[in-house]
Amino acid sequence: MHLRKRVLVTGGSGFLGSHLCERLLLEGCEVICVDNFFTSSRQNIEHLLPNPRFELIRHDVTFPLYVEVDEIYNLACPASPIHYQHDPVQTIKTCVHGAINMLGLAKRLRIPIFQASTSEVYGDPDVHPQPESYWGNVNPIGHRSCYDEGKRCAESLFFAYHRQHSLPIKVGRLFNTYGPRMHPNDGRVVSNFIMQALQGKPITIYGDGSQTRSFCYVDDLVELMLRFMRNDKEFCGPLNMGNPGEFSILGLAKQVIELTNSSSKISLEPLPTDDPKQRKPDITLAKEHYGWEPEVRLREGLMQTISYFENLLASGELRKG
Ligand code: NAD
Ligand code: UDP
Ligand code: UDP
Hints:
This protein is of the alpha/beta class. It has a domain at 6-179 and 216-243 and 280-296: NAD(P)-binding Rossmann-like Domain (Rossmann fold, 3-Layer(aba) Sandwich), CATH 3.40.50.720. Helix content is 38%, strand content 17%. The protein has helices at 15-26, 81-86, 88-109, 145-165, 189-198, 218-230, 249-260, 284-290, 298-315; strands at 6-10, 30-35, 54-58, 71-74, 113-118, 169-174, 177-178, 203-206, 212-214, 216-217, 239-241, 246-248, 266-269. The strands form four sheets. The chain has a seven-stranded parallel sheet, with helices on both faces. Strands 7-10 form a two-stranded parallel ribbon. Helix 3 packs parallel to helix 4 (145-165) and helix 5 packs across helix 9. The longest helix has 22 residues, at 88-109. It is globular, with a radius of gyration of 19 Å. One uridine-5'-diphosphate binds at residues 80-81, 176, 187-189, 192, 204-206, 211, 213, 249, 272, 275. It is an enzyme of class 4 (lyase).
């Protein structure tokens, strides 16, 4: 028997997962972190290991997992395009088999389960900004489809378990999120630009840089995850989770160069196929249901992230992707 809330975080040693574990521990929960270290290392959670309320299990969620917990946050999945395209079959298995196993676990225990879905379910959107009611524009056989369609199938599974087994589910559609502990070499735009700027290397803009993204600082995102999971229990989502501030990739590059005082020059490179042209969340539902709005402005969040990467470079402890 346990009195404290025991929370399972899959993908817990990843970028977002490590921040979530940290926050849950701060609030007095017991945390079981499950990760197969596919795209992360123990480094992100090393500082949590001495905490007696923190437990780390090396496990691949595509295999069944039997633990006793009170709630689940399912974050396990490679998230950056180069990571999820590295082994597309494993990406689909993680999205789909991982979801089935975690839903099976939640069903056995009759506990709430959160799914980290993604703005990628909207594909290359022809509705802008994207409300949750938009069904998306996804190429089902393109290079990004292992992730996009994997996550769409996971959403479908979550709602099927909810309807068929009355399971309490929460489906959050995360938009681009950034902050300390992003992988320095996972190819995502924020980490790439900061690393390039700090090292005086060319800033690689794919296409002409007119495509847009909306960037949410990790602390704002974790706050919404907790409010979504804990309040308004009847509301299952899907819920857009992101910062509606919209920036062109060229604009982001210029801001990073300015904040790092870098001498880097911009280098234009080919645009990958199926790269969405614009993306911005409609966050009306998050405001209405949870009174949530992001608090950290891009400039402020970038400064925190830059200082993290500066320390990483200075320590000489650069992790592999
Ligand atoms: P990340 O790569 O840092 O973290 C993912 C973690 O999942 C890693 O620690 C990885 O080792 C683990 N993992 C991968 N496959 C696994 C498996 N089969 N079994 C167990 N562990 C596995 O990425 P992140 O940015 O922290 O993303 C976390 C979640 O949020 C992902 O599901 C991602 O799809 C979603 N998401 C993130 C963003 C973002 O901008 N960061 C945006 C949309 C959605
Ligand atoms: N599962 C799990 N842990 C549990 C319960 C179930 O990993 O505590 C897995 C189990 O391996 C199964 C999957 O979740 O394949 C789906 O479970 P469900 O009960 O929905 O399906 P069934 O067992 O009937 O196939
Ligand atoms: N991008 C870029 N240069 C880079 C990395 C990414 O111009 O070094 C662009 C990429 O083509 C996309 C945007 O930045 O238009 C966001 O890319 P990211 O991989 O971070 O996320 P996603 O495409 O999944 O939103």
